[in-house]
Fold DUF2461 domain-containing protein.
Amino acid sequence: MEPFSGFTDEMSRFFLDIRFNNSKAYFLENKARYEEYVKKPLHQLVEALAPHILEVDPDLVVRPSRVVSRIYRDTRYSKDKSPMRDHLWLAFKKPGERVSGSFCPYFEVWFDHFQYGMGFYDIDRDHMDILRERMLRKRKEFTAAVQGAETVFSVVGDDYKRPLKTDLPKALVPYYNKKGFSFNAAGPFEMTKSVDLVELLAEGYRALTPIYNFINQG
């Protein structure tokens, strides 16, 4: 496979077209565009990121077919019955893990912007409670782990309406009362049109490695 050289306006145009022509028939008519301008460069990006991802954790899966999201949506439990996605993502997880519930590196791209970072998609309450207890017990270690990440990334996630704990150390306030959280950064689509995207993402994942290690302690 050719090396990653950046995304093109054709990718952006495809995402925009599928947003306003969201049907399986339209997708099949334009599948060649998807394969050439969306799927192929996303697979190339995974291959370019692979050595950097394995530095975060050598157990993370870096096979493109396992990392790139599917274009078809699962609409069984959704009110939105649109069959196709109008954006795609990469999620690097361990073998056998679901993206839902695991704290993992990700990258997501739309027609006009992208975002990347590490985080939980849908962690359950029991696992988050274990992490909360660890934050309190190892406060200094946690604070050191997030220090580099907080200079680059925003902390996002839904808060409980009623705080679980109010007398928190200042460093834990952005995290403790969340149902789950992610470290997220974003930029315009224009920034994805160069091979420089690889180093931008790699630097971000390096900054997040300490908090990845803290969260994934045995």
User: Anything to note?
Assistant: Residues 31-56 form the longest helix (26 residues). Helices lie at 9-20, 24-29, 31-56, 64-67, 125-137, 139-147, 173-176, 196-215. The two ends are 37 Å apart (CA to CA). The chain has one domain: 9-215.
